[in-house]
Amino acid sequence: MLYIGIDLGGTNIKAALVDAQGRVLAEASAPTGGVRPPQALCADIAALAFAVARQANCPWQDVAALGLGCPGTVDDRAGVVVYANNLEWRNFAAAACLRELTGRPVALGNDANVAALAESLYGCARGAHSAVIITLGTGVGGGIVLQGRLWTGFDGSASELGHIVVEPDGVECTCGRRGCLEMYASATGLLRMTRQAMADHPESAMHALAAANGLDGRVPFAAAAAGDAAGRAVVDRYVMYLARGTADVINLLYPEVIGYSGGVAKQGEALLAPLRRAVAPLVYGAADTARHTRLLACTMGYRAGTVGAAALARQLVESET
Length: 321
Description:
The protein is of the alpha/beta class. 39% of the residues lie in helices and 23% in strands. The two termini are 13 Å apart.
């Protein structure tokens, strides 16, 4: 059987035709087109799904189901997007709308969750009994996969990993709480700490690096690697906060693998090696067990959303047979 996975973003819609083993047979993309009525956007999603099937010379009847990964709060069981702020969707029955347009069953999931499913089944956590994927982007998101199935809570709202508190009475988060992991371990949080360090240390190599290549999350890591003390302090602080959040996840779930994706995770071992050292003493009972959660970089890249959505579609079909 073949499945189509769709990754709906605020800027682009990506679609892929995927087989039961997670192999991508064809893929295509189209602009999201800004904020529009959800029915109009669903019509574009359906058109892209038809197009990607045609690209692979796949008869539509060979497509068993579609999966849609959508940003925001999603009730995956009801197939409803409860709220997606960048799309301005509220309580929209996206799965039913797309099913009417395509004539195929539709599985709906949060975009970070379906990306986590892809990493668990085909990426960094392939073969693992359980995995948590943490996305270090503009915010901090993620997903929990237990025995190959997403854990989304009773209403689809689970896995808000960015809202673990790592600094009591810290920076105010967009969620209304203070000190959330998202405020410290996101790319946004890293940049805030970098700017503050640059303001406090005009002698830092971070100034020259930012002037040459622009200010982004790579700057403090590059400065630290060059022996710059201020850059090293930023990296160490960032790792400390990420370690606090990671240890909380381990102490709650003890997954076999935690995978990191997003822009900051592209630092690879420059991030993961000190993170492992910082996490170890924070994990309950770590000294008394021979097995530890593996902290790894994600491997699926830009395809995680589409391949994960296709996997969600496959699981929908399998659950109904």
